[in-house]
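Supplementary Text 2. Reproducibility record for the structural model of the 163-residue chain.

All settings were left at their defaults, and a single model was retained for analysis rather than an ensemble. We include the record here because the model underlies the residue-level annotations in Supplementary Table 4.
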Amino acid sequence: MKKILLLSDTHSYIDSQILKYVDQADEVWHAGDIGHLKVTDQIKKRKPLVAVHGNIDDAKIRQEFPEHQRFLCEEVDVWITHIGGYPPKYNIRVKDEIKLNPPKLFICGHSHILKVIPDKKLGVLHMNPGAIGKHGFHTVRTMLRFTIEGSDIKDLEVVEMKR
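Retained model, structure tokens:
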């Protein structure tokens, strides 16, 4: 069993409130727009991190983190990318691959809008944790917490923070 903290769109912002949730997780996944490596460095000091770069991330971040991460967590096939779209309107970058080889869990960021949507046609659970950074139009900062046990994704919780 693994407790996952899923965040995105930090835009160089991290504070003790976010790190409190990092400390409670087994792993942290970041869906891009990191902003500055100080964010991921602080997370990596505390917990294992899986991250992708986003469209605002510079060459240093792109060198450390790829555009896509696809991996198994327990028995769940996970795909994380920054710009992915939503079921059934996936972004052109992922559309063909997701239809040919759908993961069980597809994660993206970018929109700053928290959404969890099942794609019943493909058998995919889509998650976007919204934005936890302070840059952008969002009025509430959000992250997701959940547990993966075997092939089950469960105990999903939305974490909201004031701007």
